[in-house]
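Protein Record: Sequence and Backbone Structure Tokens
======================================================
Tokens: labelled as protein backbone structure tokens, with as many entries as the chain has residues.
Question of interest: how does this chain fold, as expressed in backbone structure tokens?

___
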Amino acid sequence: MKIPNSKFPARLASQREAGRQIPNCRAGQSLIEILIALAIGAILIGAAALGIAFMLRATSTNQNLQSASGLIRETIEKLRAWSSADWQNVYGLTKGTSTKYFLSASGTVFQVIQGEEGVVENEVRTNLVGRWGLDESTGTIAYDMSGNGVNGTLGGTWTRATGTICAVGGCLVLNGASTNIALGTSTGLNITGNLSIVAWVKTTSTAAQGLVGKGPPSGSSGYLSYIWSSGVADFYSSGGGGHVQSVRTVNDGSWHLIAIVLSGTNLSFYVDGAFDVTRTSAAPLSTTNTGVIGRESDSSGSYFNGLLDDVRVYNRALSAAEIQRLYQSRKFTRYFSIENTCRSATASSTIDTSPCDSGFFEDPSTQKVTAAVNWVTTQTIAELKLTEFLTRWKNEVFRQADWSGGAGQEGPISEPNNRFASSTGVDISSSGLIKIQGL
């Protein structure tokens, strides 16, 4: 009997043509190939992820450097303008790299403040009527950085903090018993409609603590913000509505950005840039009472106990996006220092820093400025510095018209006169020109 084996090859061929693989001796090799392909794919994916991580890290670093560079250039340009207005503005400052300053504009006038300024990269300045950065390192004045001149006066007992301890630049540590910042009766804080109060706070207290306000918490006019005894944010308006409070607590010992926004009769609370709750409250009434930070404004009570930083008041309702921007923006610290400079007695262009070495003398018309910006990274505090020299080029020191006064003056002069040093050998009998080498 003949077996029709001729059909088997045809059947096998049709299966291969249909794409169904018949197990054979090559099955093991295909599995290895698949495993190798998967391994190579994993390596490529890992390399790509690592490349993206480095790219993101590099981009973040570059952004910080670009922002820091812009802040440094802004500081230098402000100093140039300030020194051009009056050279003594710069020359009269205490010299040395250990004495740090920053500039604040109040109206059209610069104020120089000893300390390190905290800077929010994406600022919100529209309708900002008061901003107290609490970055000062000396004195009892809490300067208003909004430019409106609502400076506060520190009272009681407090300490200052800097660096990573604070939220934005420097900050103030209040003792919960006596410390407050009196803001006076500035009309800029007499807000009768929409307003926003924003502040960085860090506390563990379970007592009622006044934040910022103007007018009494009970009476005919005013408004005041608190951290209440339960740890929630609180707002009181004498226009009606009494105490209105948030849901989320903030007295856990961590830094929190609190924003209280009144828009019409809607009072909204935000914590760390996120919306918390909206309540109903009436607008505050006009007030001529004293503004205050760190306690109730009508009595010596409800003192703030903890760290306070970057307190702000706006006479409008901030949007949710603006509040989130204030919270998420990169924070920088900037300052500058001033040093005297020395020039060569041979009238060369060589310049050095005071105290002057032999062969150099102090140049009262040139000052060395070092501007610096710091920011926090994941590992440490990064710093960018720039050194430049400011020269009293625009202010004419003197114009010599008469050299007949004779000998008697060596080195730089403090005021114009007609004397000269005998060692210069000035010939007063012949006409001629005097040229300063290098200029």
About this structure: The first strand starts at residue 101 and ends at 106. Residues 1-28 have pLDDT under 50 and may be disordered.
